[in-house]
Amino acid sequence: MHEGHRKRMYEKLKSGENFFEHEVLEMLLYNAYPRKNTNPIAHALLKRFPGIDAIFNASIEELCEVPDVGERVALYLKNLGECFKLVKKTECFGVVNNYDEFKKFAALRFQGEDKEVLEVYCLDKGNRIIKIYSYTVSDPVKVEVSPKELMKAFSQNTPYGVFVAHNHVNGTARPSEKDDAFTKQIQVVCSILGVEFYDHCIFAPDGSVYSYYTNGNFYGIKEQFSVWNITKK
């Protein structure tokens, strides 16, 4: 019976329906009680404490005072509370206020890489990096990402703007024809979705960095490969 109820709850979660607070807690407790009906325990906890946040901030002793909540379950709830504290502290990867800050941030991520990696940094309106997509393939000297993958990534996160960066494991930071073509593809995708495309940077092993923005050819790409200008042709 409990298996059927849990399946219905998971289906509700998958469909995106709204949950009551006791239902959220009930599902969290599935891991602590693999074979037990957790609904009464969720109600008992919410009767003792004013809400889930208060449950996560309660002491082990206070949690153990609730019927059917032993030390093992109390420790599980306390650990969840610690996890949520960390989530609140790490709302973003960092804030980039200018191009130099972005290049320093990306350079640290590429340090020590022995294969080509392409990263897309999604920013909100406050210049906070809220999501990073990292792409690589088995070939160490090339990386490819389809426009379809980029569309999916941007649609899921609706960033205000994006920076794009990748590394060259051999040679200089100077872009190849494929790099130029990919930069144009990104601009088309961004213009379709209304996302601001800030720059595409390439990092080389010798520490040099090529920036489409600072090298002066970025505005031409943005102008020529905006979807609105393409449709006018």
Helix fraction, binned, reads: 40-55%
Can you name the CATH architecture of the largest domain?
A: 3-Layer(aba) Sandwich
Beta percentage is: 5-15%
CATH H level, superfamily name of the largest domain: Cytidine Deaminase, domain 2
| Radius of gyration using CA atoms only | 24 Å
Structural domains: how many: 2
Determine the structural class based on helices, strands and strand pairing. alpha+beta
Span between termini: 63 Å
Count all strands and give the number. Answer: 5
Structure description:
This protein has helices at 2-15, 21-28, 39-48, 52-56, 60-64, 71-89, 99-110, 147-157, 177-193, 218-224, 227-232; strands spanning 118-123, 129-135, 161-167, 196-203, 209-211. The chain has 233 residues and is an alpha+beta fold. The protein folds into 2 domains: 2-89, Orthogonal Bundle (DNA polymerase, domain 1); 99-232, Cytidine Deaminase, domain 2, CATH 3.40.140.10. Strands 2-1-3-4-5 form a 5-stranded mixed β-sheet, sandwiched between helices. The radius of gyration is 24 Å and the shape is elongated. The N and C termini lie far apart (63 Å).
Topology record:
Blueprint: H1 2-15, H2 21-28, H3 39-48, H4 52-56, H5 60-64, H6 71-89, H7 99-110, E1 118-123, E2 129-135, H8 147-157, E3 161-167, H9 177-193, E4 196-203, E5 209-211, H10 218-224, H11 227-232
Helix pairs in contact: 2-3, 8-9
